[in-house]
Fold these 4 entries.
Entry 1:
Amino acid sequence: MDGEKPVFLLSIQGILSPKTLEAAREVHNRTARAPANVAAARQLSDLSHMVYVPLGGNGHAGDFLILDLWNNMDGLNKFFSDPHVQEGGGLIFGSRDPVVWTPAGLVSYNFPAPYGKNDRIVATVRAKVKSLAEASQYHNALVQKLVNKARIAGNMSHTGYYRMAAPGDPAGLEFFAVDTWFDAAGMAKHYQNPEVMEGFGDLFSVPPALGVWVHPAGEWVEW
């Protein structure tokens, strides 16, 4: 839609500081559950806050991913400049890589899940593209070519982002895709398709970093 307000993605990927996921859950919820904290984030334009761990995790703390959607950069910057928010992040993560991503303006889609398909697996793809012009051409051709096969395999959505950077900054060539699936086996088979691997070779200047994520066990504060 012309004039649509952009929705920015904040990804925070890192290594948890607590030694177990249960301990990490308690720390996260103690910080995020406070009504004042939730209200402040939402008031400043935080539309969604979701947490993930790698698929097949064994319950021990390790890699952790937060994906937040914001529709106001000033609000995002104000929220995360708060010393209390920074302190909370330090309690959750031993090390972390926060990145703000802006919509890439490439072909994307969002399909409903069939009834009873309740699993949610998030796949992330991150790498630098060769150029924005080439990326648009190769990405859109690949997605349009494979969307039907991806849907049959259990794909629900695909969205692409570029790293927010100053004009001309090479960091602006970093691409991040987020796909949501309801079938882990179908997803794995799809990504092993030679057409997908060949498409990645055309799109990226280096092999991409791939991640497969699921919601961690237990009740985590999300919205």
Note: The chain has seven helices and nine strands.
Entry 2:
Amino acid sequence: MGKILVQVWGGLGNQMFVYAAGRALALRTNSTLILDHETGFKSDLYKRSFELSKFRINIISANKIQTFNYRGGSFIRLLSNKIKRHIPFLNIKIFQENNFEFNDKLISNPNTNCYIKGYWQSEKYFKDFSNIIKQDFSIKTEMPDSVLKEASEIMALGERAIAIGVRRYQEVTKFINVKLTEKEYYLKAMGLIAQKIENPVFICFTQDPTWVKENLCGKFNIQFAKSKDQNNGAIEDLYLMKLCKHFIISNSTFYWWGAWLADNKSKIVIAPNNWLNKYTPNPDWVIID
């Protein structure tokens, strides 16, 4: 049986994309999925950590040899990246994503032994196993009473519960590829929802409520998801987002997953067109400027 090694990194949304691509590749090739959940976080600028253990997934962790976590391993890693082979496991190819561009080879020409590195931000990488991915992303973390209270309030709204995910990247000090989603997009999206859903209530998930209050509040009924502690905040907000019926998201992988995992078969998902990977938004979503 082959081995699919996956380097996990980034925030929760990116970790989920990386896992989903690797999981589907392992299923496609009848291989064992092994997660390298150390390397990608050693020098993380935002001090993020591995969060996939909060889901009901079977985690097989990479060993020290597989993660180059040994004396002289940094040099061996550089050499391995250069020859695209995982020394000393020369049968394992290193397969790296290129600037967020969609790479069909991960699907059409899968390798039974490889170490994949990238973000893999598209449903195309795992659509053939989407039901299994959704099962894997069942949340096992127990929700506190405060979150359960929020959940009951969202469910009581029924069809009127609209999640709006506003990401302003305020933590980013130097913009390289990130493109901000501006207020015109959100206002237009809320207007479109208001034409289809009577008396909508927009449940706002954001780390920058001040910006939302200054730019989006006034015309529409916007309520804010309560702030959470850093340890479980992301998984708790994901739990709440999934309960909403319709979605307006920014170019954030975290909000992408909230919309994708929601069970409502008739859900409306509105997304912007400023993603780094043009295949990140799903074709059945409403894409606007």
Note: Residues 145-288 form a domain with the Rossmann fold fold (CATH 3.40.50.11350).
Entry 3:
Amino acid sequence: MVELALLSPWIIFLFIGVLDWGFYAHAVITLENATRAAAVYASGSSQAFTETGNLCTILLNEMASLSNMQSVTTCGGTSPVSLSSIQLTGSDSPDGNTAVKMSVTYTTPQMIPIPGLLAGKFTLTRTLKMRATS
């Protein structure tokens, strides 16, 4: 009992850290998948990168499993997710062909901060360049 009493604060501390890291890892993987899905859609035609409503819907559907995305209906403003997409041509694109550059930013909900290790809230950004198919 004495050993458990002495070690339980450290065990709880480690559990909270693992829980936070797990959530952040899930958020990064989900953000990467959502960015890829939006870029695939945006690269489908020469005007798809300007369809922010459709791109936002794709992002929201892909990110629906995150805890602070349940009631989100827009991308940008006070929303935890925002996106920007531009068309790249010529020397700006990776291989000289027309491409789309998709950038998605996600702000995590406030988690339990651990001084020196985890801030408790992060802003994650993923950027992807994809060659346009048509």
Note: The first helix runs from residue 2 to 42.
Entry 4:
Amino acid sequence: MNTLKLVIACNNRDNARAYAAEIGAVLFSSNSTTTDHLPFAAMIVGTTDNLEKAKAVGDAGLYLVCERTIKNQAPHTLAKPDLPGIVGLFPMVAHPVAGASASDAHWRDNHAPLALEVHTRMTHYYQYAILHTFNGPALNGIAACCCATEDDLRHHFYGTPDGEQQILSDIRKFADTKRSPRRVIATAESFVR
């Protein structure tokens, strides 16, 4: 299922939580005690008709995205006990030679099936393909790879060493690995009404 949404990237987790509750959205909040080294401290996925307020809250970025549910149900449809335990958020800049459109097609059509095969402990998988940047860094997508525990995400994410090499090799086909920001490890919370 594909749905148009806003991704609101925030430097302040408290502001993000309050705004996610206000608009009835899904919140991914960093588990890190400090967030200065991260591209954002929290990420809201939802909808609103107040773009100016979303821009103000989204001080780390505001994006119009196509939310692709690759595995499980869309986050806005999940009941509280079904939310993912731990989420790895992977911001992506498209491969400089392939370009944004071809990179996105590869990510969707080739990488997603490979990820489902290799990431055996992944419980939910969403792709946020960025269609328009209102403010913030020029990103082309954000992957939300979810696991039951942080240990699964950090230490068992690839299933096998060969699987890890397959994923890393494939990522180099559609992403600029030098310009793509670092991963954010987060917890999901739903305020969807």
Note: The two ends are 20 Å apart (CA to CA).
